[in-house]
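User: For a benchmark we're assembling, each entry needs the component sequences followed by a predicted structure for the full assembly. Here are entry 17's components. Please fill in the structure.
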Amino acid sequence: MKRKLPPIPVLLGVLAMIAVIAAAFMFRFASYFDESLSYKSPTRVVTEQAETPRQQALAEQVEAERQAALERPYEEAEYRAFPRIGSRVAIWVVAQLHLLFAAFVLAVPIFAVTIEFIGYRTGEKRYDRLAYEFTKLLSVSFSFTAALGAGLTFMLIIFYPKFTNYLMSVFSPTFLPYVLLFFAEAGFMYSYYYGWGKFSPKVHLFLGVMLNVVGTCIMLIANAWLTFMSTPSGIAESGALISTWDAINNYTWMPINIHRVIANIAYGGSIAGAYAAYQFLKAKTDEERAHFDWMGYMGNFVAICGLLPLPFAGYWLASEIYAFSQTMGLTMMGGAFSWLFIIQAVLIGNLFLFANWYLWLGMGRIKGAERYRSFIWPMLVVITICFAVWATPRSILSTTEEIQAMGGSSHPVLGYLGVMSAKNTAVNILILTTFLSFVLYRRSGKIPTVSWAKLGNRIQFLIFLAAASTVIGYGIAGYFVDAKTRIGFSVPQVGSVLLALVLVTLIDSFLLRGAATTETNWGKIRPISQYILILLAVTFTWIMGLMGYVRSGLRQHWHVYGVIRDTSVDAYTPTLGYATTVVSVTVLIFFALIGFIFFLAGLSGKKSFVAEPTPEPRGGDGTLEAGDSPSPTAMQV
Amino acid sequence: MNLLVISAILAAMVGMRFLKPSMLAWIAIWWLGMFAILEFGFAVPIPASVIKIYMGIITLSLIAYVLTDPERVEQVWNPIVAFTVEKRFQPLLVVVGLLIPCVVAWSIYADMTKSKQAPSFARTVHPAPPDQITVHDTDYPLGFADNPYRTLEASAPEEFAARVQAGRDVYYSNCLWCHGDVMAGEGMFAHALNPIPTSFEDPGTIAMLREAFLFWRIAKGAPGMPDEGGPWESAMPAWENFLSEEEMWNVILFLYDFTDYKPRAVELH
Ligand code: HEM
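Assistant: Structure for entry 17:
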């Protein structure tokens, strides 16, 4: 249909409007072009006016201020304030976010390379695919880590210039190597990621190993700075530097290095597991579900491998802090911070419970797992009891009436549960039980065919029993010896547990040789298990935030404990409620960011699934087949 | 522990087992049974804050117990669904519907009419000591100081025994009134005090402390505590006003000797 032309009046109207607007512009800006059009005051123009004394004084004042500004000597600012929340909280949040991403970026390559190696050795494609899938999460996280790190550095310089300067002077030789290592890390990281399948497997594995070596070195350097702040050494009382190496190798450097490497692995595994869970829940097809179920299982497996040795590393760290300063040790364990450890205990108990629960749910995907159903509830009872002991506070939060009834803030019965002997025992039994869950899980898909199967089972049972009795025996003996011996007892306790882990695994690997396998239906797991995986990741993140705060907060009003005082407005210990709120907000921000990364990683993974079949190869040789977690020994080859 | 009460509760739970309760009822029985043990099973009641932690853990475990097994989920879930949708339960449903606001109202009422208590103060029993104290003009760096007579235990046992004996005299002429004749914190004044005098038999006191820490506590008493230790609360006297340094180190030897505990050693790297 032909449009009718607009009637002439309308056109005229439009023209008139344009004209009016143009005229308005002309009048508005005419003065720029023609001086005579500019606005003039209607009154007589005064050209020469005598200055009043006031005006004179004002002019002199302005001049004096200008002069003073010119002559002002340069002063270093000690602190600058961040608006609203204050410098400390700002630094706290950014540092924690940086740490969370860094931990993830350091951890993923460790198990990605390990899994790739397993794939290389066994020739199973699905391991290689899984390693690649893990690595996919890296590249964006890597950029986030760097951005947050740069942000943290700038914020330190802006808000804590004097202190930052001091730290720079103590550690001046470490910064350039740090930057160089960072370059190398970027190089290895991207060549590892983009070079997947493009290099020969050996070269590619080498790249992955180097990625780990460099990453660990970076962490060691950064750990030196932050541990120095808590437990300084290598400096004079005035703070003057005596030896940089001593400053690096301070009391808590090694314990933190070890604790972090292990914790990072556990944490990285749990985040990767959460990614798999997220993809599982989103999945449309059975293939996808099978794949991501398996990936989540592997992530959880890595997380538990990391979780098991952590308590021991933690105790070592704590005893080093105690050795460095009784005051700091008491602040941590008996004083203001002891409540945070109750929260930590509850969270760690949760980790163990969740990890076991996930395994039990996982039995649902295996045919023949029904045999072991009746084992679950006793294990649950043991875990519950240990969890309760582990979370029993030493000095109890109580009302006046309750204190009077108890006669002091420690309870006559619970008092025995709140001390180290009981807690160490509880956590070791927790570790054993979790391991038992694993063994049963592995077992549920297998029927051993070797002739000595019965005997093997009995021996394994005895090993468990012996380890448990050792742990409990030392736990009870711990009440009758001095503190130092008692701390020493944790060594045979953990030792017997580790030995049991190794021996049982070893026997298992022979016992299950050539075992008949039943079917494992990857993807046939109840969705609740996936929410548990996500909960695990959240709990881990929260613990990291909490413990990072403990480490920093323990310094109280010191930047460098006992040497450089914090004289800023923030030099007070925040209330528990406030601190945990900051931690929670940080965790929320982290998950918002990591959610974005998951989303991106999900985009690039979309295609490959339609093309490729279920990752469910049949293995018959009893080494690593579907339904089998690679055994811990296999992981460590 | 109140073994009688605990065994009664456990016996009741075992008894219920024979009634073959449904899964839902069984979970409820466990929950209530555990709660009853924690609440009534101890001669000295467990503080509410700890009961909350324990019940939280137990609740979580029970949830895990139900959710690991699809059959149990059904057994728990079906009665709940049946209760809300089936006709025969309708009157009961109405009652429950009415009950919920009533319970809320009652709990608010109970909360508002609670008997008045002084605000509770979470006293830190073992606060961090100062880095250094001065007693009778001698400076003690608490991080490193050790009992000067401790080494005698190995080098000169007789002298050590004599010092323990001297410590015994100090204890029974000064500390007995509060800390008690067997060091269990039940001296004759103990019942009038809040907090009550420390029981040195408790594994959470001198057994995990260094001697320098005790020296600080004995010399400076309650007044020397930092704020989180509530210096205004405790009746522990500042013994530097009455005893010599030697007497205080001696009494510390005696405390460990009597209780058979060993002090935490000073660790120097
Ligand atoms: C089951 C036992 C434990 C688990 C699962 C655990 C877990 C963790 C995790 C995940 C982190 C974060 C690591 C990182 O930032 O890279 C961490 C840090 C830390 N943990 Fe533990 N931990 C345990 C025991 C302990 C114990 C007993 C202590 C005693 C003091 C302790 C002290 C610390 C400290 C101070 C940090 C902060 C390190 C930092 O961020 O610089 N941990 N822990």
